[in-house]
Amino acid sequence: MLRKAILWTGISQTGQYGIQFISTIILARLLTAEDFGIVGMVTIFITFSQVVVDSEMGGALLRKKIVFDIDFSTLFVYNLIISIILYLILYFSAPILASFYEKPILVPVIRILSISVLLHSFRIVQRIKLLRQLNFKVLALISVISGLISLLIAIWMGVEGYGFWALIIQQLVSISISVLIMCFYNKYWPSFSFSFSSFKEQFLFGIGLLGADTLKTIANNINANVIAKVMPLNQTGYFVQSTKLTNFSVNIVSAVMDQTLFPIMSKIDDNVELYDLYSKFYRLTTAVLTYITMWIILLSSSLIVTLLGEHWVDASWMLSALSLTILPCSIQTLCRNILKSRAETRKVFLIETVKSVLMILALLITSIWGIYAIIVGTIVVQLLVAVWMMYIISFEINYSLFDQIKNIIPSILICIGVFYCISWLQS
Asked: Are 43 and 221 in contact (CB under 8 A)?
């Protein structure tokens, strides 16, 4: 079951993020760095709103053995109400945000892109139903189909000269199609009934994770906003594109963990069995991502020029540096799923709180010295948090921090050796 689940989730996320990857390559040649910078500036507000709408309450339904229609309907009613409230907040606060960044164009951008928050509320329950069925094959097909159609529309708009609107419409079309297909496949529509007892149960499970996700969203997206405020807009575009390229591997691994490992881990009560599952996935993940990081660093300039074009070459150093966050970010996600499966949501919230504080402090300090210092600060914080989470997990499943680090070292040493050999041959 695990291998099949990982296979289909891997196909799903490879397809989804592969399409986004192709989209990045194609649209980078049709649009400017400023276009990506504009959309990147508002991403934090949209992502934050979607996290609040999601609220992680669905995780309670994944852990329950028996779920009634009233439970699904309660979740949907909450999602819908919160999404409407957040959409109105974004709509009326758009002029304030545009004034802060001194970019009037952000007003229509925020108001239109925030429609995705409303659409997202219709997707959550449908996705939970598919995950409860462990129907990863259907989820894979949905992500690929919605991604392909939205990509084709975005390419057409890019060719026609619509600029950053191509990126906005791409997001709206993708989520709309996924909602429609899920509704058609599940043949389910909530009854709009609401149970306070069911809500309380879901809320108590999700509140810690909601706080953690909120802080995680801020920590992961605030860099682009700070850069947009203190640096030229094209630097924001370079940062956004470099982040997309490095996140390709991270997103696939994270999605496999969230959609596959968490539902399976939630059903495991034996710590020995959980240790075996974690250690196997940990060794595989760290080995693969270490090699990927090495090749990104070696080929950063060639990758940027080949994938995005000559006019993006100034972003190559960012890609090389940010690739160092691939491994620690993935380790954090794996540890987070262990804690979620044990219902240790308070610990997840504590970790994300500390991480966000560290990230913001690092930004406040490093922004004085510019973009180079900001990226170095980001790498250091991600590494520190990853080690801290590995230490916490060592008590949960009896997998010592020393053993976890020891299992990474061979891959790192091999990559360092290969790196210097190739660098020597190229010199």
From this structure: yes
pLDDT in tens, 213-264: 777 777 767 777 777 776 777 777 788 778 877 877 677 667 666 666 666 6
Q: pTM to 2 decimals?
A: 0.65
- The answer to whether the CB of 358 falls within 8 A of the CB of 384 is yes
Q: What is the 3-state secondary structure (H, E, C) of the chain?
A: CHHHHHHHHHHHHHHHHHHHHHHHHHHHHHCCHHHHHHHHHHHHHHHHHHHHHHCCCHHHHHHCCCCCHHHHHHHHHHHHHHHHHHHHHHHHHHHHHHHHHCCCCHHHHHHHHCHHHHHHHHHHHHHHHHHHCCCHHHHHHHHHHHHHHHHHHHHHHHHCCCCCHHHHHHHHHHHHHHHHHHHHHHCCCCCCCCCHHHHHHHHHHHHHHHHHHHHHHHHHHHHHHHHHHHCCHHHHHHHHHHHHHHHHHHHHHHHHHHHHHHHHHCCCCCHHHHHHHHHHHHHHHHHHHHHHHHHHHHHHHHHHHHHHCHHHHHHHHHHHHHHHHHHHHHHHHHHHHHHHHCCCHHHHHHHHHHHHHHHHHHHHHHCCCCHHHHHHHHHHHHHHHHHHHHHHHHHHHCCCHHHHHHHHHHHHHHHHHHHHHHHHHHC
Neighbours of 305 (CB within 10 A): 14
Q: Which two tokens stand for residue 257?
A: 């963990």
CB 215 within 8 A of CB 207: no
The set of residues, in sequence order, having a beta carbon less than 8 Å from that of 192 and lying 6+ positions away, is 73, 76, 77
- From residue 115, alpha-carbon distances to 172, 247, 365 in Å are 7, 25, 35
Q: Which is it for the CA torsion 66, 70, 71, 72, positive or negative? A: positive
Token look-up 């402090």 returns: 361
Nearest Cα to Cα of residue 213 among 17, 393, 54, 334: 54
Quote the tokens at residue 83. Answer: 């999404």
- Write the pLDDT tens digit of every residue in 96-143: 989 888 888 899 999 999 999 999 888 888 888 887 776 677 877 888
Query: Can you say whether residue 343 is alpha, beta or left, with left for phi > 0 and alpha for psi between -120 and 50 degrees?
Result: left
**What are the b/e assignments for 124-152, b being 16+ CB within 10 Å?**
bbbbbbbbeebebbbbbbbbbbbbbbbbe
d(CA 312, CA 329): 25
